[in-house]
Amino acid sequence: MGFSINTNINAMTANLHSTLNSMNADRSLGALSSGSSINSAAYNASGLGIANQLSAQVSGLGQSIMNANDSIGLIQVADGGLQGYQNILQDVRVLTLQASNGTLNDDQRAFIQQEIDTLLEAADDIAQNTQYNGINLLDGSGGSSGDGTFVTQSGANAGNEQSVTIGDAQTSSILSATIDVTTQANASSSLDTLDEAIESIGSMRADLGAAQNQLMSSIRNTSVTQINVAAAESQIMDIDFAAESANFSQANLRAQIGSFAQAQANASAASVTNLFR
């Protein structure tokens, strides 16, 4: 009767399972060391693709928050310039009221006119030199189109934009007529011109305030969205340390058992061979 020796097949089988368990142990160890359950596309190709998209969205949302904060800074600089401008116009109005009084003579009104002219030049300086990052804000030439419109990319996707328009605050645009207080009659008519100018500056500041509030609201909403998207990415990418530690221990133990079984199979084969010597 014939017989066969299968100990080499047993050794090969033990080696295969030992190798597979070693690979699983290495994979678990890599996950534990990196904190990520997907260290290679081979582990979870679809999950990695989704996680990468979510990661890109998280980064985009973070940049949009920075964009909105930068735009808020720009608005605050513009509003600060307009506040100084408005204060000057109010001072000019006070001087115009003074010149409207019948107790003054023409020489005294001429002195007041000189002071008014100096103040209006200072207002023009504010309009022409108020800048943010080298960009003029109050002369109507700012913005990407050069028309005073500033666009903020306030979201992670195309079309998520907010805009604010800052008009031309130079005295040639704000004042509908020359401020002339050299006579009592001219001083009285200049008051209407100044009131219109002060109202225009106030309207510009109100628009800036509304734009700032809108951007702040956008930042709050985007921040919540960013947290939620990051949490969704974390669900895919992050590992459960307790479960993965158990997997590693199990795979490592099986790899050791496989190595022991392979050694025993090889030893058995050697023993059988020795019987025929």
Question: What does the model show?
Answer:
The structure is a single chain. This protein has 277 residues and is mainly alpha-helical. It has a domain at 51-236: f41 fragment of flagellin, N-terminal domain (Up-down Bundle). The protein is built from 6 helices and 4 strands, in the order αααββββααα. It has helices spanning 7-34, 45-99, 106-129, 171-174, 184-237, 241-275, and strands at residues 131-132, 135-136, 149-153, 161-165. The strands form 2 sheets. It has a two-stranded antiparallel ribbon. The chain has a two-stranded antiparallel ribbon with strand order 3-4. Strand 1 (131-132) and strand 2 form a beta hairpin. Helix 1 (7-34) runs antiparallel to helix 6 (241-275) and helix 2 (45-99) packs antiparallel against helix 5. The protein starts with 6 loop residues before the first helix and ends with a helix.
Question: How many helical elements?
Answer: 6
What name is given to the CATH topology of the domain at 51-236? f41 fragment of flagellin, N-terminal domain
Q: Cα distance, first to last residue?
A: 21 Å
Percentage of residues in strands: 5-15%
By helix and strand content, what is the structural category? mainly alpha
Radius of gyration: 39 Å
Shape: rod-shaped
Q: Helix proportion of residues, in percent?
A: over 70%
Number of DSSP-assigned strands:
4
Largest sheet: 2 strands, antiparallel
**In CATH, what is the class of the domain at 51-236?**
Mainly Alpha
Element-level helix/strand string: HHHEEEEHHH
| Low-pLDDT windows of residues | 1-6, 272-276
Overall pLDDT level: 81
Q: Would you identify the CATH architecture of the domain at 51-236?
A: Up-down Bundle
Work out the oligomeric state of the chains in this entry.
single chain
